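G.,

No rush on this.
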Amino acid sequence: VQLQASGGGLVQPGGSLRLSCAVSGSDSGSINTWAWYRQAPGKERTRVAQIAKSGDTNIAEAVQGRFAISRDIFNANVYLEMNNLQSEDTAIYYCSAATWTRFWGQGTQVTVSS
């Protein structure tokens, strides 16, 4: 499974960004869950949002009501819609997918600053 994240950038507080993750590879049909994680400088990597093959989603409490995860019908792209961004959302965001193991994309930087 290969994962390619994109869409990060610099945004002002209160702004929005949409991250995309292109999913490919011969084992991509075996993916059970897709997720977005983030890691701020000096902090551990934490899960932000997850979507299961069933379509069920789980959003971290810190971003509930502001972030949403979705995927296209072919499961070839997974998205993270981020609204009302705040400085504490500044981090490298990683897309991830799990089969019998977990795969990671390369990360995309999100910086929230005025």
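When you get to it, here's the other one too:
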Amino acid sequence: QVQLTESGGGSVQAGGSLRLSCVASGDTDNYYMGWFRQPPGKEREGVAVSHYYSGISSYADSVKGRFTISRDNAKDTLYLQMDSLNPEDTAMYYCAAQSSSRPFGGYLLKDPGSFPYWGQGTQVTVSS
């Protein structure tokens, strides 16, 4: 069983930065872990996904060059560094995990239903 706990959300002005953290309990060494977000009134969308052990990653076009997914295996923690934030990044951000039974690829970002493990979410609000 995998449990995920996010933290690090908050309110920032446009152009600012935040770093989200997701602490994972359970054996996630061979898991894909990702960040998803759900803006108000919209569907959940993939932001970034990474193979937890190897670090290979994929990003949504909307965040490429601004967001960076990384992990600290020693701390069992996944991060999302978010720079150059804009109001369109306002959303509830979720950490998610799934076993790496399928090939890695950007298609994982479009398939949140395939992730069985989710955190409770952390709110990010960006003001103009």
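The two ends are 40 Å apart (CA to CA). Residues 12 and 126 are 5 Å apart (CA to CA).

Enjoy the weekend,
O.
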